[in-house]
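__Protein archive entry__

___
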Amino acid sequence: MEQAQAQDAPADFEEGMLDVGDGHSIYWRAQGPRDAPVILVVHGGPGGAMNVKWAEALEADKWRVVFFDQRGCGKSTPFGKLEANGLNALVGDMEKLRVALKIEHWALFGGSWGTTLGLAYGIAHPERCTGFLLRGVFLARREDLDWFLWDVRRVFPEAHRAFLDAIETACGKRPANAQEILTLTEAPLARFDESGTRLARAWTLYETTLSVVNKPEKSGAEEAKEKGDAKAQRPDAEANNAAISMALLERHYMARELPPMPLLPLIARAAHLPCHIVHGRFDMVCPADQAVALAAQWPGAELTVVNAAGHWTFELGNIAALRVGAKALAEAIRAAI
């Protein structure tokens, strides 16, 4: 494991690359008091990347926060590699990271696909977990995949039509169902050429459109500054790579790796641990029945369904509920020590 001090970061900030085998290395970062309880942030996707802004949901002096990029995305290498990229491998990577960082126990903070992966880790290694903070639960059942790829057209017909238009342009055929979306998009997304990049951007735009219900309003000056900052910090090549990894890996997992296992029947292995679930009532990526189903299998879990909120972490209602949940989780962990 290589380790280095991050540039322009506080003295208690570290980052590194961890060789996890199979030709993959994962990027990680850690921040916060070294004597505080540890929480691992599990990003969404598959194919997303860590976002240090997630720490805004946590009280900075209460946690040692660890972030990482999953195989094939973010700063992990090699970029976009699908070989040896599956749920069991990612669970193994998380455990290797825990051992490498000499962490005895940690809590897990996941959103969307990050809840799937966080739950899978908790089922496999409950003895290493102190609790869970979950946002936008995704159970990875067939009906959950079908909703995202097809059934949501009943609520977002325009966005779904544009998504199918992009697939037809790239593939020469219009999908007639969810399975055809997965079958037709495999080849163009894997090519990494201009056509594949356009399709990846359309895939990402589709998901983004479904994700946000109430984006916080900003002044004109704030909007202009954010756009300028985004352009300076995230050039087109980086934005394209982010879209490619998201679309490529989401398609790969939906077609070949999911559902990875029936999560709900196995939840009992971790259900003795504290769990706080936050879910936007109008989440169009992961409908709220998934959070309700999880809470029903987890005695003692605290479920907050946020009205007027969707899938995006930073909708005001979601972030407020996450802060309450994180505070309660920290108190439960301290009480158990």
Summary: Residues 1-11, 219-227, 230-234 have pLDDT under 50 and may be disordered. The longest strand covers residues 14-21.
